[in-house]
Amino acid sequence: MEQRTENPLFGRKVYFLNPPLSLSNQIxxxxxxxxxxxxxxxxxxxxxxxxxxxxxxxxFIFIDDQLPxxxxxxxIKSFEYDKTLESIFLGVLSVSIRPLEQQKFVMDLKxxxxxxxxxxxxxxxxxxxxxxxxxxxxxxxxxxxxxACKDDKNITGYFxxxxxxxxxxxxxxxxxxxxxxxxxxxxxxxxxxTLIKNISITIKRSTIAFSAVVLNSAVTKDNPSKIQxxxxxxxxxxxxxxxxxxxxxxxxxxxxxxxxxxxxxxxxSYSQKPVAPNPASEVxxxxxxxxxxxxxxxxxxxxxxxxxxxxxxxxx
Length: 316
Fold this sequence. Notes:
Elements: E1 14-17, H1 21-33, E2 38-41, H2 47-52, E3 58-62, H3 69-80, E4 89-94, H4 99-108, E5 115-117, H5 122-135, E6 147-148, E7 155-161, E8 164-173, E9 177-183, E10 195-203, E11 206-219, E12 226-235, H6 238-262, H7 289-298, H8 310-314
Parallel strand pairs: 1-2, 1-3, 3-4, 4-5
Antiparallel strand pairs: 6-8, 7-8, 7-10, 8-9, 9-12, 10-11, 11-12
Helix pairs in contact: 1-5
């Protein structure tokens, strides 16, 4: 079982289950712009399969529709009794929940993500969610979302030097920089801390031109004719960073949607309150024959509890 941990190294994925349009347009988009790794799960039937694959995730559940309120209560309660889901940080969002219902949810359920009554001012809602995400270490030590893109045919990179054009094979990219493989002949040019001009990256049909600073470069271990270079953008407009970020989330969403489409659906209606499992009965500790012989020689009474079989008994 994976236990809840504070501030995990690589952060936590953030999910919004059953988000209304206002939440998707104003909250999710803004969180992504702030480099939180956020996803939407439209239907509760897909939630548990996805969350079991991301057991450190934070999940906010909008409870005003799709299921009756009591069914949402039962759905959330069921996480406490599932060893594969009890580590999920759950939170609740609602526009119309009444005070007594709020009390029931807060007092009876484990909601480390809190219960947020959504106001008309979505900026206040956004700030509350950000406070919860930061408190629970949703970014970890990383500050920017990075996309592995080694085999992505939609992204290509080039470096122009004098009259030559050198291809850059991108390994990963974020809104602040990228890592790539290129020819070893560029190692002197790509020395650490060097400002490199005339770099371009094409994402689908959009081309971004910029300069970048070399953070690190080294000959690859498996191929001495290639070098791996890590670069940080030195001149990149906010519009270009947004273009990169949007493509990153487009790619991540494609993986998320494919998994959601092929995952096992949760067909429970959650009309019944979940029942806590019976605690496992204690299994007696097995004694070794050396321990039994020692007890026998000391004159103490031997307990037969823990013997595997009658054949074991015959050896005492």
